[in-house]
Amino acid sequence: MDVTGAIGDTANGWMGRSVLRREDRRLVTGRGAYVDDHLPEGCLHLEFVRSQVGHGKILSIDCDSAREAEGVVAVFTAADLDGLGDSAVNFLLADIAPTPLRMLAGDVVSAAGQPIAAVVATSLAAARDAAELVYVDIEPLPLLVGDERKQVLSHGLQSGEIEDAFAAAAHVVSVEVEHSLLAPMALEPRAALASFEGDFLTAWFSTQTPNRARDDLARILGLPLAQIRVVAPDVGGAFGGKASIYPEDVMVAWASKELGRPVKWCSTRGDELLAASHGRGGTTYGEMALSADGKVLGLRARLSFRQGHWMPFSAVVPARNAGRILPGPYRVGAVDIGIKGFLSHGAAVGIYRGAGRPEATMLMERLMDEAARKLAIDPMEIRRLNLIPADAFPYKTPNGEVLDSGNYGLLIEKAIACSDYAELRARQARRREAGEVVGIGVGLYIEPCGQGWESAGISLCRDGSFVATTGSSAQGQGRETAFSQIVADALSISPDRVAIKHGDTAEVPSGIGALASRSTAIGGGAMVRACDALCEQIVQAAAEPLECDAGSLVFSDDGVTAGYGAGGLVSWRDLAEQLIGTDGDPKDQALSSSVVFHADGEAWASGCCLAVVAIDRDTGVLAIEQLLWVDDAGRILNPLLVRGQLVGGMAQGLGEALMERIVYDEDGQLLTGSLMDYAVPRAIDMPSVRIEKIETPSPTNPLGVKGVGEAGCIGIPAAVVNAVNDALAPFRAGNLQMPLTSEKIWLALQGSAGTDNQVDD
Ligand code: SMO
Do β-strands 95-96 and 296-306 pair in parallel, antiparallel, or remain unpaired? Predict the structure, then answer.
């Protein structure tokens, strides 16, 4: 793959520089330590017996042979688990019927892969062998489909006179989009290790939300928070799939408490596809009323989300986000948005990189293209006609969201200029004349980057170094690198002088974690505030030894000097030792600040993707010939990290658009239970991309930054799907649904859209 573009260094200080990732030397030389690398003395291994059917009544469970097997310490079933509390579901919408996790199924199983029994043994092999000996008698029940499914969420968003808008419309266009279920597919599958000693529980989870996991453990196991420590060691990717606690995590912790020994479980790839939360899976329908000259008068949308058989903490987030982000970057007279969620016989469906943003964007961008076709206006032009103008920020959307800043017109102008758009269209016409199947597609997107608060702390240590703590965790984004740059600029020191700690509830103040593209905007904002508070302390402390006015002090990597060449320097170490003496641990804190930062609103990133595709007429094979991407992430903290986030998100966005799809059969059996059956993009599938940027700083946080983590899953699929539909337009192929496999495209070229046999939609 080839990445070109203009996200380059712009810095005077450390922010804006492509500082190399400080994490990588350790990680790429095999010195990372993931959950599975930890093996405490006497650790037991846990294996689950999982349901083989999609729905059924448990008649009996026979654990006798398993209990007698060599190495087996215990076999647990639901009968052993009475009296435990419930996991939490985030009540982000009013009308929710929460369905918390069950560690082990009781009378009924509701999905293939649902844990039924847990076997604990002295070795992993013994646990696996014994799990085979557990006999579960299940009477299969029919799957609940359609209206039989339990509705667990319902929400409506209305604004303006929607009936009038449609009555006045010169044109109405409509689109239906099906989002396949997707696997978040972290390189490291989920893993949990717990050790209960005395009355204190330590749990190592592969998680992006250690504090939330601790709260859940306390609630479910009935332990005080003070008796639980959750550690997220190195985490090999998460993408939303590790943001909520799982039955397996709780089971490991409970078993350790019950047995008084460390217990570990690490998922296999197969179990991950079967029982880790899936993403997307929703169906969206939208219709848009337009005036004769192409202005959008109103948007009606119906969003339906399947939720799987239980609801993780963030279960409601995709539905809520999809609803609140509509109508995207556009000014729309009136909206009427209805959202529903239903339980389904499969793995829990939760957040996955984008979490509702891709759904909102795909619907709007498909509608815009349909409108352009109907009115015979260029797709860029119809977007331009309806954009929220740059002088309208902060802009309150019809859904009551406040978009903080942006310049969507400039995104489009830049995409047009960089792609030589007029020439692209002219060339497309010439190639069509010559019989080629070629298309151009645009995806314009907005990306909300988190609400609420995050915590941060920073200390000056006796040895003159600094230690910063953040409630934002890390799963490979380069958090330590980025945050060291923030601290370096805030204190005028070198990034090497500060260590960044995260992910351990014993070391880090209570925080939210890393999700929703929020870490740099809100977690980074918290870090700036913590540094500001420490600066004040330093100034107070240094003014006296330097015998000067506090206002004239200057910080540098060497320490603090009295400004204006007036004289003395007190080194960081000397300053610390003057405060707390020379005896003791070098990392003892001489000065320390800790803050909770509440963001003044939400930062909304945005961008415009443009794809040029060509289709082989004989085979339906799709080639992405050009990808241009103009992103606005506000102020850029580290161009290298931004690029990594954008390109990584793009890989997963292309995965959804082109190949990924979780499939259950009509009995609720997972047909895509391995990487032989579930297609994820490989390096060879990645096209070249040119990335450009514009920068509209966010006023919602002290850094002016916005998120980038999810952008690639949001804008890229919309551009690619629009490009393929554009390519197929002369064939009157109708509305193709993702993933756009060669088979589907080939069938469309033959004038048949093909059929899908997925149940439960
Ligand atoms: S899908 Mo994200 O980790 O909020």
Answer: unpaired
